[in-house]
Amino acid sequence: MHNEGEIVASGVLDRHEQFATVDDHYVALMGWPRAALIGRSMLDLTHPADRTGNRALLDRLYNRNEAFCITKRYRRPDDSHVRVQVHVSMVPDGLGGRQLIGTARRVELSPPVFADSRATAGRAIGMLLAGRMALGAPYFSGVPAEILLLLFHHGSQPVTLSRIAERLDHTPAVTLRWLRALADAGLIHPPGGDDDPVRMTLWAEATLTTILAMPDFAPVPA
């Protein structure tokens, strides 16, 4: 992931997740006049395909007080979208309630890194499947990770529930159970049926792009 400049915008959301204050950088980033942003729902201005993941992270923030970072798209006045990386945390509002503090910066995905990451995902799937065959599925398996890697590897190519189950050698029932769990976590868009395409959320895709593009991983402590 490549950051476009070092300018960081900041804003505050009230208890209803509406913009309460935004700085000049946020106004420039979003393209809306300040008066048009104040009182607007943050999720309403979020790309529809990114709302599920954003909603899940917000709920986790409320329940566990876990700050989060998400890559998503905001809608501009001309109906175009700007890709941003947003960090959100929760603080008291001084009135017995809560408010959200957010910072945002514009980002673009680097195509070469994106392509390399997809290739890495494909190799990881192959290693997982080979390990399951050699060592036994109960001892070398992580169904949710396998599903995410498979979806990431296929990119924009549609992958159905039945195809995922066939490719990873899991039953449709097991696959569906994990797809529902991944959807609840905001990592995928839930499919409507067995033949509907399963797609990752932008947040999950951007996160995996960054992770799989890392040249080296931290060693596991002995």
What is the compact description of this entry?
With 222 residues, the protein is of the alpha+beta class. It has helices at 24-30, 34-37, 51-64, 111-135, 143-154, 161-168, 172-184, 202-212; strands spanning 2-3, 9-13, 19-22, 68-75, 81-92, 98-108, 188-189, 199-200.
Task: Label this structure with key terms.
six-stranded antiparallel sheet; elongated; 222 residues; two-stranded antiparallel sheet; disordered N terminus; alpha+beta
Unreliable stretches: 1-5
In whole angstroms, the N-to-C terminal distance is 31 Å
Structural class: alpha+beta
Oligomerization state: single chain
The major β-sheet equals:
6 strands, antiparallel
What form results from the Cα inertia axes?
Answer: elongated
Structure in words:
This protein has 222 residues and is α+β, with helices and mostly antiparallel strands. It contains 8 helices and 8 strands. The strands form 2 sheets. Strands 1, 2, 3, 4, 5 and 6 form a 6-stranded antiparallel beta sheet that branches. A two-stranded antiparallel ribbon has the order 7-8. Strand 4 (68-75) and strand 5 form a beta hairpin. Helix 4 (111-135) packs antiparallel against helix 5 (143-154). 27% of the residues are buried. Residues 1-5 have low confidence and may be disordered.
